[in-house]
Amino acid sequence: MDPSRKRKLRLVVALSAALLLATALIYTSFSASTEASKPSEIKPGRSYELTGKVVNGSIEHRGSDLRFRIRDRDGAHSVPVTYTGVVPDPFRDGREVIVSGELQNGTFVAERDSLVTKCPSKFTEDKKAS
Amino acid sequence: MEYAIALLVLAAVVGAVLSVPLRRRGEAERRDETRLAELDAAKEAKYREIRDAELDHQMGKLSREDWRAVDRDLRSEAIEILRQLDRLEGRTPDGGMDR
Amino acid sequence: MAGVGSACLAVALLTALYAVGASIYGARSGRPEWLTSGRRAIYCVAALCVGAFAILEAAFLRSDFSYALVAEGSSTDTPTFYKVTAVWATQDGSLLLWATLLSLFASAVLFVTRRSLRDIAPYATAVLGTVAAFFLLLMVGWENPFDTLAVPPPEGAGLNPLLRHPAMMIHPPILYTGYVGFSVPFAFAIGALVARRTGADWIRATRRFALIAWMFLGTGIMLGALWSYTELGWGGYWAWDPVENASLMPWLVGTAFLHSIMVQEKRGMLKVWNVSLICATFTLALLGTFLVRSGILESIHAFGASTIGVQFLVFIGLVIALSAGLIISRLPLLRSEARLDSLLSREAFFLLNNLVLVGLCLVIMWGTFFPLISEAITGTEASVGPPWFNKIVTPLALVLVLLTGVGPVLAWRRVTPAALWRVLLVPVAAALLALVGLLALTDASDSPASLAMFCLVAFVITVVGQELWRGTRARRTMTGESLPRALRRLTGRNRRRYGGYLVHAGIAVLFLGVAASSAFLDQRDVRISPGESFEVNGYEVTYREATAKLGGDSSGTGAPISFGAVLDVRKDGEHFVMRPLRNYYASGDPSLGTISRFFEGEATSEVDVRWGLTRDFWMAVRPDIGSLDAQIREADEKFADSAGDVQALIVAALAERYRGNPPPAAFRAIASPLVVWIWIGGAIAVLGALIAAWPSPEARLRRVRSLYSARVGRELSRA
User: Fold this and answer.
1) Helix/strand/coil (H, E, C) string of A9-53?
2) Chains in contact with chain B (at least 3 beta-carbon pairs closer than 8 A)
3) DSSP-assigned letter for residue A129
């Protein structure tokens, strides 16, 4: 084979390999991704990754259980949550959280250790609010 | 007020520092020196490449023929640099005293 | 003094713009005095930024709450060390730090190259000036760190307790030094393109800066991981958080750059690739800064909804567009001087390693921005978690470590399979030996990926050892020196090469720690009362007693309340005591009760780690302060308007109650094998980078000497 054709062949092989890998990447990311749902969107019968804000004053410790309510980020609809496991440090009233689980009898029963606290106000609380 | 005064003072100081080179001429003489330093660095780099290639050859990372070719090229480039250095130093009075 | 600080920034902005104008004018008109003036302008920007930074530091140290920034980020009861470092925990302060470090770095490189690279340096000065001007503009226009408050509050909000950790406070400046450092090779690459000097000159001049930037960025990433491990209370060191990813991406592309420039130096190839890589690295560094600032991706680290996201995006867009345009317009000049002779050659493997590194970066970028991508495509925000990242990154990491070992033994241009086999024989044997040993003696086969990594690590380390041995032997036959002397001179004379090999060994050791600790850690979460025990990884852990301390926890974070536990850990006659704590910081929220305020603020885990070369034992405690709820509410009502010292007494009484009658507490215990080798490997890699970046003594001396002798010559001729 002459060198220029060989090079062209190499290029084609490399490009198709890259294309294949990229497709695999896109496919796995969409199939592995989890959709976050708001409290107003969830229904019983399947599991969700619930996201929203912790309702102020709703956090209660019952033995090893943690109970609190999550409400829509921009709304008042809320659901009660029961959770066991490790609570992240920044977990507080009003913080944005994600937790996975399932709605059972009107209560969102969370999987163990699935609670993640996001903190949109970050290190400086609402600094530019003024 | 404090801001305005500080602004003026700082701007004046910076302006003075920046205008010094503009008022001073006679860069041409310095240019030789610059060129000299540049060539010296190039020579140094070339020597390092020659030594590097030799080490590569010794460790079997460059075949004998390849190393011969690379070495020949590098050496001729180094000679060219040395020639330029000499030419430049020939023009600089007493410049040869460091060789 | 706030006015002086603002003035410093305003003058620095004008000076940076002047530097851009003067350098370009000087280069176009061929008038060197303008170039000198432009270079000095950058020095002046550095001086002004340092001045502004010093003023801000002083305000933080004095706790001068008339500065809005000090009131937000510090307080009188913040320990002094954290007062100093609180400057860059704020958004405006960290912008100032960026600008200061950038101008210092720029000054250093312009000073070093002041006598060389006459064609390229002026344009590089202009690029550096532009970047500095952008950051100064952000501060002058939108985020002035010297904003003052008309009515200073009596007390500041204090530094976020999560940040009160030594690693976290030195992490930003080190990370920024890395980000900023990459602007130097970027500026010179752009300068080389503009000046049409597309040889390897700009690479030789800035290689060292790229290496130093790479080293700092890597150190910053490691410190961030260390912070995560010891402060965040979850026990891991890497969570694929957007901000972690943002720092890793430029590091990966920067690593690719450091390798591929060698191909341009040696063979005159990959020129387009190199300038593209450095432009990408710099863009990613900006993107990293932007991600932290903008809050477009949710992350626990980021600084929150910011006012300067748009400006950053515009600047990043401009950088990408201008550098892409410039590269395209210079394509004819960037033609390769040589062809790839063989796929079995060092340059081919460097190319492969580049593809893997850039591929890794693209994968991480895809995962990081996936919420935005999925929202754009499907309309709902979905995210990919650590399992996805681990699945994709693991095979790439394995290939990368393999290349770390193969790369150093390959010859340039081509190598025959027979010759390759000769040098790989011993390392492959070492890897197989490791495989057999691990299968026979341990349960490493439970995790095939980790097992593969262990073998690769053995392979890489043997390669590095063998390279040293072969080099020493070659030098001895050449010079007849004794072995130790030959080794010393060999490594001393070829610092870049052997420093680089040391980095390879360090990275392999790091991955040893990652592979072992990710696959074989033993973790237990329990909830027990004093006197009860649990077992993890053969260790018997007994909760001996609860502790409650007011004021001054042992690590000096200034926390007012620390609840904790004392635990006895026993295994095979070995016995040690662990004392994890949880610190409570008072909340500034006035709607809370006077006493509950003390417990409702931020809380942080102060984990206790027993470090070990074979195994770390990690312990965090979460006391159940819910059991004090009733008493706290009662106290809130009874002592609603009590004075500070009465409140202190009440809190002390509550703490005493917790200590004397402790409820069950939640513990997380982790036995993590070999995790300490992550930090050791990182340190080895940093040391290697330092060795590689260190100027070789004889070259430096000779250059200085020749400069002096040239001056002697000149001055003699004048006399």
Assistant:
1) HHHHHHHHHHHHHHHHHHHHHHHHCEEEECHHHCCCCCEEEEEEE
2) C
3) G
Give me the residue from C413, C699, C717 closest to B93, CB to CB.
C717
Q: Looking at the predicted structure, is the pLDDT value of residue C400 above 70?
A: yes
Token pair of C291 as six digits: 């991600």
The residue of B1, B3, B70 whose CB has the most chain C CBs within 10 angstroms, and thus the best one to mutate to test that interface, is B3
Contact yes or no for A93/A121 (Cβ under 8 A): no
| pTM confidence score | 0.87
Shortest CB distance from B41 goes to which of C414, C703, C712? C703
- Which of the residue ranges A116-120, C301-305, C423-427 would you say has the lowest mean pLDDT? C301-305
Give the C window 613-642 contacts with B, CB below 8 Å: none
Residue A16 CA to residue C619 CA, distance in Å, equals 49
Percentage of chain A surpassing pLDDT 90? 2
Exposure letters C473-483 (e unless 16+ CB within 10 A, then b)? bbbbeeeebee
How many angstroms separate the CA atoms of C270 and C340, rounded?
10
Confidence of residue C134 (pLDDT cuts 50, 70, 90): very high
Residues 570-599, chain C: which have Cβ within 8 Å of A? none
For C569, half-sphere exposure in the C-beta direction (CA atoms, 13 angstrom radius) is 21
Proportion of chain B above pLDDT 70, given as a percent: 79
β partners of residue C619: C608, C669
C residues 271..330 contacting A (CB < 8 A): 295, 298-307
Q: How far is CA A7 from CA A4, C258, C344, C410, in A?
A: 5, 26, 15, 22
Assess whether pLDDT exceeds 50 at residue C689. Answer: yes
